[in-house]
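Entry 0007
Protein: V-type proton ATPase subunit a
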Amino acid sequence: MEYIDNLPAMDLMRSEKMTFVQLIMPVESAHRAVSNLGELGLLQFRDLNADKSPFQRTFVNQVKRCAEMSRKLRFFKDQIHKAGLLSSARPDLQPDVDLEELETRLAEHEHELIEMNSNSEKLRQTYNELLEFKMVLQKAGGFLVPSKSNGVPEERELDENVYSNDDYADTASLLEQDVRPGPSNQSGLRFISGIISKSNALRFERMLFRATRGNMLFNQSPADDPIIDPVSTELVEKTIFVVFFSGEQAKTKILKICEAFGASCYPVPDDITKQRQITREVLSRLSELETTLDAGLSHRNKALTSIGFHLTKWMNMVSREKAVFDTLNMLNFDVTKKCLVGEGWCPIFAKTQEALQRATFDSNSQVGIIFHVMDAMESPPTYFRTNGFTNAFQEIVDAYGVARYQEANPAVYTVITFPFLFAVMFGDWGHGICLLLGALVLIARERKLGSQRLGNFMEMLFGGRYVLLLMSLFSVYCGLIYNEFFSIPFNIFGGSAYKCRDDSCSDAHSVGLVKYGSTYPFGVDPKWRGSRTELPFLNSLKMKMSILLGVSQMNLGILLSYFNARFFSSSLDIRYQFVPQIIFLNSLFGYLSLLIVIKWCTGSQADLYHVMIYMFLSPFDDLGENQLFWGQKVILLLSAIIAVPWMLFPKPFILKRLHSERFQGRTYGLLGNSEMDLDAEPDSARQHREEFNFSEVFVHQMIHSIEFVLGAVSNTASYLRLWALSLAHSELSTVFFEKVLKLAWGYDNIIIRLVGLAVFAFATAFILLMMETLSAFLHALRLHWVEYQNKFYYGDGYKFRPFSFATLTDDDD
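Output (structure tokens):
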């Protein structure tokens, strides 16, 4: 045991050792100190102002200013995105700006941009209205010409090049006049022209018909091109209409209906000369507005491009400043001493004092920052230093629960056991190569994909690229053992040990094969495929292999509970938890695993079901060739029975005696060891330390013992899913190959062959490579979370979340 204790600590096996520290910082150097700690990213601050609202804290005004600047920067980013520009940063030769100067510059840029947007919006609305007016003049004019003029439509073509040589200089602008919507005769026929959305045209016509009781004539014509609506600024299909009516009441009703349906009405004179002059003026003003809009857009794009060069730098600066002030709000402000007091957790390897000394020097403070290590009653946070390879496996474990401080980390073994158990269910080296290619593509494009914003599915897939890599490699390995390549066996490692009884091999399914050579060197003999005993043989192999793997992994979990108990110096857990658990599990299922190995090695014909059942029903019967030592069934059965009360009774009574002695003054432990004692006790005992509740502790221990005894049976049976899913994957692959691809290839028709190949490829990709991969992944996840980790893993800790600028950058992106 001394040799084990003297071994160097394994990375990831236990979380980093943490210290609880107190910082006393002068006001003049506090901001620089917190900023340096954010760069370091290894100190988790405790909120000492949790009882105060955000508006009662010291630096609330600075946080508000930073939030306002963040809003302005998001506004700029939005405008750049809408303009279709790229906010690419370029090397900045200007000196760094401070927060006050940046705030002033952002306010100026925002005011300028809002003013440009307002002017552009007004000009755009005027331009759209004139464009609609032009369309109305083009279409509605045709409804007003008498039938005798139908032969000269070319004379009324409304084009900016027509009538360009006519002299209209002395004529007053008709756009400035109030053109009435019809003849001056109040009792005669009048009209209203305008434009409306095409989707509302039919309902608009029906409403007009009902409102005027049919006393109107409605003419319409679709616009040639989609028009930008002045209100919604979206491209919409529009329809030009002219409504002929009589009377003031009808006019009032029609105008109200036009307003309700969002129709825009424009006056069109019935005189062709006036129409031509208005058209000329409209085209002239459209040309002027286009020039003005282009100039305004160019000026706006230049301003946005200038902002875009600095946008990333400014957003990073503001987010950092806001994070610093948010952190400063978590500290106590001592007015009399003019200093800030903070508390938090940091790993012992963190170079925190160097960052604080650098902050004191940079801020020219006369008083240094005091760094004081303190004792804490609460449990420290859990922090594992991971890299790109181990991070995904650590996330798999943390999804179940974050490890208790300094508890054995399952991720160390999950790196190998998780992809291996997946491969046991997914074993096919053809499918494994497909997964391997996908994993290699993700790893090869790691740098490019890591800098992009991915969707939820792709982000999850990219994060688990190394998990996928190991799963594919183990799938190739298990596929070689099963000798399956898309369900096809190959003679990779030499010739088969079996042959058919005749050349036709017709009785392979009925009579069987004949062994004539040495055993196939690696994996399943390819001749088993299609033989009479193929399914019984593979079922027996995979079922026994599942039991062996399950019992081995559960023993590993119990062994890790021993190392946890040794680490926390809990001899009670070793004597009254680890020892009876290892005895109980191996007296029953370890014995079964040993019989499986003996049967494989000796070729025994013993029925293992019979041996295990009659171990309980007839413990004194003779075992024959399975007899390993005298009285083995009785000894193993008694060991399993004795282990149950061994787990249940001693520990609660010993805890009660220790508690009584501790509070009667007979034995006292050091305060520094209180955390170990707390970890060694059950949750119920830890929560009621002052008032020891024996019944609660006993019930907790009883539940734990019953859960382990029943779980030993159910967990072993649960590992049979390895056999079931492996068999299902193999049979599905066989069905798709023989009933789809092989069947289609039997036809001498290229179309049928191509269809069969397409169906086979689709089934392989979406069913075997996607659905089966997900199924095997989830089952491997369950085996680790439930069957393996519940033997030793509490998972009731909390993550170490340091104040770090690196996480802020990821969040902003």
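Curator remark: The first strand starts at residue 18 and ends at 26. Residues 147-187, 666-689 have pLDDT under 50 and may be disordered.
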